[in-house]
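One thing: could you explain this record?
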Amino acid sequence: MNILVAVKRTIDANIKAKVKPDRSDIDLNNIKMAINPFCEIAVEEAIRLKERGIATKITVVSIGSKACQEQIRTALALGADNGILIETADSTEPLNVAKLLSKIIIREQISLTILGKQSIDADNNQTGQMLAALNNMPQATFASEVNVKEDGIEVTREVDGGLQTLRLSLPAVITTDLRLNEPRYASLPNIMKAKRKPLEVTTPDELGVVMKSHIQLLSMLPPIERKAGIKVNNVDDLLEKLKFEAKVIS
């Protein structure tokens, strides 16, 4: 089984993002970047399938600037076999990403595509669904458990009020939830080995995809700072403040 995993370069989840003074975007100068956390879970799941003898090859793809090679190399150090960078300065909106991944799936004869359910920078949760629609493939989003069967895969996902189990034929697309697994750390020897693994660089033009922008960023604002809390002496004081200061009760 050939598996494709897409990884997005985002701000490290432990870093507090800052807005540029002109509010045009997030300030990325001297900011630590990393693999989007949900994409890390996707990489880990692919590696586990390979360790169980189910997957034969794991291809990692990222889309963006040359700097995305860093995140591809990280995934290679974790256990992926080869990487593909689709280098572009154009917008990586979900539909553009889905079209590019669609081309890679066909070219590489991918059986299973695993994506993170969302990106933490733009909070998008659309690429997996768009990709499945473009390739007319079954999909299972927010996967918390994946089991491979003889005739396909079974995916358990959390829904309102319980768990839902879906059976999908291959090729298919799944997106990962936080509960699916806990990503591993790359060892130093594997980091060194990853430098010698193949990494292809291509472009949207070479894949026959015209990048179009459908979203216009008007302004970026930092979240409103919360006021410090206060302590009240008793219930009567609390009721008074709720009634006359917060005005949430009458």
Helices lie at 37-51, 69-78, 94-108, 127-135, 188-194, 204-207, 235-245. Residues 37-51 form the longest helix (15 residues).
